[in-house]
Each structure stands twice: as C-alpha cells, then as structure tokens.
Amino acid sequence: MTEPGQRRAIVLAGGQGTRLRPYTAVIPKPLMPVGDRPVLDIVIRQLRRSGFDRVTIATGYLAELVEAFFGDGARYGLRIDYFREDEPLGTVGALACIEDLDRPFLVMNGDVLTDLDFGALMRQHEQSDAIGTIAVTTQRIDVSLGVLQLDEREADRVAGYVEKPAIDVDASMGVYCFSPAVRSHISRGEHLDFPDLVLRLLDRGEVIRTWRPDAYWLDIGRHDDHDLAMREFERNRSRFVGDDEPQRPAERLGDVAATTGRAGFKAVGVEETAHRPHALVTGGAGFIGSNLVDALLATGATVAVVDSLVTGRRENVDPRARLHVIDVTDADALERVFARERPNIVFHLAGQLDVRRSMAEPAFDVDVNVRGTAAVLEAARLSGVERVVHASTGGALYGDATSIPTPETAPVEPMSPYGASKAAAEAYCSLYTRVHGLSTVSLRLANVYGPRQEPQLESGVVARFCAAALDGGRASVYGDGRQTRDFIHVSDIVTAFIAAADSRAAGAFNVGTGVETSIVELAEALELERIHAPARRGEVLRSCLDPAAAAGHLSWQPTIALADGLAQTLEWTRAHLQAQPPRRVPLRVAASTPAAG
After folding, report:
1. Which H or E run contains 13?
2. Were 233 and a residue from 35, 73, 129, 364 both cysteine, which residue would form a disulfide, CB within 3.0 to 4.6 Å?
C-alpha cells in the first residue's frame, strides 16, 4: 500500500528501441548515455528533486541491465522496485499488474530529456476532476509537400495552395498522471498502448485534461534525437541535473556490463573489475565496422580502430575510439598498433569485398583477404589477444548451393576469387586455433544492409536501390533479377559479432535470416522501375543461409524484418544523402520477423 504522503512514479523502460540500433542491440534505450550518465539516471534524479520517493520501473528488453544499474535506489535517496514484463504489454498494459496504486501516480517514458516540474504536474492533476492528465507541448511539423486548400462547397475546386507548410500540433510529452480508477479500464495481462487507453477512456465518458508546462522536452527515439540530446545536455547541464556531481566510475555503464556479463566479454577472460574490456576493430571506419564500434562503445568498452580509409570514412568513427590509419597488409605497422593497444578482443572486418574486382584482380584479393588476415592473426598472437572474431561470407563461400537455406555443413564451392580468399582466411583462423591456441570464430555473413552502407559499392544493392527510390525511381538489375539473396540488417550483424565474442564457440557460423528474397522482389518493394543489364560473371544465383547453428551455439537470432529494415534504411538515406523524393515511397514487403532457423 502507498504510504500517506508518498509520491510514486511508474517509469516505462521495457521497449527494444529498434530505431536506435545498433546501440540498443546491446544496451536498453533508458541506459543510452546523455553526457556522463544514462537518460533514465537524469529522470530519476529529477523525480527525487520533485518530491517523489518511490519509483517503479517497468522493464522487459534487457531488464537485467536496467535492474543492475539502478538497484534499490538507495544512492538516489528513494525506493526503486521493478515490474518485469514476461510478455510485452504495450506502453500502459503494465498498470493493471503493478500493485499498490491506490493514490494518484505519475507515468512516464524512460527515454525523454526534459526539465519539466513533475511535482507541479501531480499537483495540477490532484486538484482536477480528471482521471488522467497529459503533459503536452507544441511541436511544429514541416510538411514536405505542396498542400491544396479545397473549396468547402465544391470538393474538387481548388481554393488555395500552400507550398511546404508548417503545422503546429499539441503533442504528448510521454508524461502523464492518473487516478487509481484508471486501472479498472485495463484488463490484467492485456497488451494496451497509451493512445488506445485514451480513446477507451473517452468512449466511456471519462474526463482527460492537459497540462502545458514551460519546459524543454525531447523524445530520444532516433539517432538524430540522441545527438541533439547530447549537445543540449552539454550546453545546459545544470538545467537538467542541477548541481549534481559527475557520476563516480562505479556508476557507469561499463561496470554494469561487467557485472551482468552482457556484452562485457566475460567469455574471453576479462575479469569483473572496474577495468573495461578493450576491443580492436579492423575495418572499423566501414559500413559494418563503424556500427559495431558504436555498439561496443555503448557497452562501456574502450575501442581502437584500424582502417586504411580506402573505402571507410573517417567521419564514421566515433571520436571516443582511437583510429589508426594503416592497411592490414602492413604487418609491421599492425604489430606495433597491437602492441600499443593490447586489446582483449579483435573483430577482423577489414577486407576486399568486391566480387567483380576479385575476378579482375585475384592477386589483389588474395593479398588483402588472406595475407591481411594472416597479419591480423599473427599480431593478435604476439600481443596476447584472447579471441578473434573474423568476418567471412556466406553466399560467396557456398556458391550455387543445392540446399536452401544453406547450412554450414554444405560443401564450400566458391564461384569467385573473393569466395575462395574468404575460405582461405577461415582456414588461417582454424590453423591459429589448432597450432597456437588462439581462440577464433568466423561469421559467414549474408547480404548486409542498413545505415552507412555506400550505394556506390558493388555489394550494397539495398543501398543502391534506396538511393534510386529517392532519386527518380529507376535502378539497374543485373540479369533477369531472379537471383535471390538473404538480406539482413546491420544491427542484427552487430549483435551476432558481440554474441560470438561472448561465447567460446569455435569454427564458422552462418549469420542470416533464412529468408530468400529475389532482386526483383526487392525492387518491387521499393516500387522501382527496373533497367536490366547483362548478368555478371561469378555471381551466385541463389543465396540464403540457415542460421540455426548460430541460434544454438551463440544464442543469437535475427530480429529485424526486411520491411522494417528497408524503412529505416530509406530514412537514413534521405537524411544523409540529401536526396529529395519526388514521390512517396511505399513498402510492400511482409512485416513478419525473419525466421531464425
């Protein structure tokens, strides 16, 4: 039972934060760092200053990290307890299951940066006749289209025209107060989101009111929002945390990762101390590598990057990671970097990835993919690295496999020098395990797509198609377009790399979805006009990987459906390539989660 005079807040912290991947692949969204602390740490300190003495955190995704970080709340001077959702209940379904809600209580999302006075909201609600009070803010929405104004009497007659207008709307801040009676409108165990609850309450004649504070507010839902939150916090730190001192090292995210073992690299022998794991990523300025670097930094690890910047971009590398601009084929320079950095774990992603170039310059392909891998393995051995995770290939390795989805037991029959060089690199990894005792694992990747993939590169068909969809709607398709691929989002690849680092599994594992999609189907999903070009020599006709072994040995499964991944990639492409779409680009891919085998 709530004690007399006690103020209680329910913080919703169970969502997966898919729009913030790859960060949220390894860390829950409420623990996303803003300045020197997680965003939810800021919120809890604000609640305490507003007179709240009990906070219940509703957790779900990566619940153990949230619970390990905040504990019982003693260091904040209030009581923290938890309600863990075994199954997702939506944004407000948990309210029917949380006990002792016999007085008005506050409900809020755990991923907002704001300086609003939570106590003032509670007072406003307690003095009203409403079952619920919603904190609102005015937001301006820019419409990127020309808007027609139609005559009220003649619906087909144009009365006016406004080019790209801005519309002001009253938006929910994700902060609410409810009276206990609201629970009678929610069934126990029901999946219910806030908009549906509001409509249900209104339909049943309940009163809902708004409260408009003069306050800063930002929902940290996307990468751009997180970047803005970081800048705003650094500029106006005291506005959000008052005169609080910076956090002590024991309160930081890296120690939570070490405590829980989640992405803390415990499996490779890092002790559970204040010393954070240290990773080195070759190819860390590239598409997959830079996304992996971001996720590793989010766990609290320190990270070094080795990249020649031939295809990688310096701006892809988070400034918190140390960048060494060298080529992996320069064995002497590589050994000096390894000796200086002394990493615990190495993720080897640098390589020559262009099938066409491998056909034209096979010696160059071997030099980068085989000699470069051997140089990385030798540098790792000499510097005492505990584990190497090697990025291999799936489709190019198996060739035109007869078994679809293809398991790891299928014959290795590459149809290009690229596939052959990756097979040789895998063999070198196994050799160093047998002869030198170096722990290695190879991940055979399906066709990866997502943010930071360059549309100019041969391997980036999704990136090329997204760019085309935003710039004229025409794209080249090689051959008849019936060749199939297993498309997997980069955030799923990142979680696979971290899962492989945390495991002791050896050998090679497929990392794919098990879902086959043709190039024609991909083009149709983006409503592209296809321009057919001659088929390319050495191209595999069908490629789809069976990820069952990774699920069993690495405890990894894909989570991003192709429809969702394409939508995210289109959004990123629009924002970062400044392509202005001449039309709306709909998606026609089924929104089911990809099979994990």
Report:
1. strand 8-13
2. 35
Same structural domain, 310 and 454: yes
Same-domain status, 493 and 363: yes
Statement: residue 15 has pLDDT above 50 = yes
Amino acid at 443: L
The continuous run of DSSP H or E covering 123 comes out as helix 118-126
Catalytic residue among 23, 398, 418, 428: 418
124 to 128, 261, 309: CA distances (angstroms): 7, 44, 57
Per the structure, the complete domain to which residue 232 belongs is given by 8-137+171-251
Quote the mean pLDDT of the chain: 83
pLDDT at 459 over 70: no
195 and 283 both lie in a single domain:
no
Report the distance separating Cα 269 and Cα 257, nearest Å: 14
Statement: residue 137 has pLDDT above 50: yes
Q: What does the DSSP assignment read for 446-486? A: -EEE-TT--TTSTT-HHHHHHHHHTTTSEEEEETTS--EE-
Give kind and range of the element (H or E) at residue 371: none
Amino acid at 562: L
Q: How far apart (Å, rounded) are the C-alpha atoms in residues 464 and 508?
A: 29
Kindly write down the DSSP assignment for every residue of 475-531, as one continuous string.
EEEETTS--EE-EEEHHHHHHHHHHHHHS---EEEEES-S--EEHHHHHHHTTPEEE
3-state secondary structure of 326: coil
Instruction: Say if residue 292's pLDDT is above 60.
Output: yes
